[in-house]
Amino acid sequence: MPETAFWILKAIDWAAVPVGVFAFIHALLQRPDAYSAADRLTKPAWLGITAGAAAVLLLFSFAGTGWIFWMAGLVAALVYIVDVRPKLIEVQRGQRW
Question: What keywords were assigned to this record (predicted)?
Fold first, then answer.
């Protein structure tokens, strides 16, 4: 593998780690009742999913043999960020006029 490709893959690997950590920290800081009000899984469930995603993104590599685990971790973190997070923000912000 050329050296440039190696560094590009490493950059992708390490860029995904903060995404997983952000998803976990955001899930940790939200009120437990907001999850049920947003009609999503419970807070402990999302804490487990996002913690697992962050751990998988840290432990596995996009270019390695565990790439499928890495991809699953990235998808889990992105589902939280794209689907759950906006609903939680909407529920906690309340009705806007």
Answer: Membrane, Transmembrane, Transmembrane helix
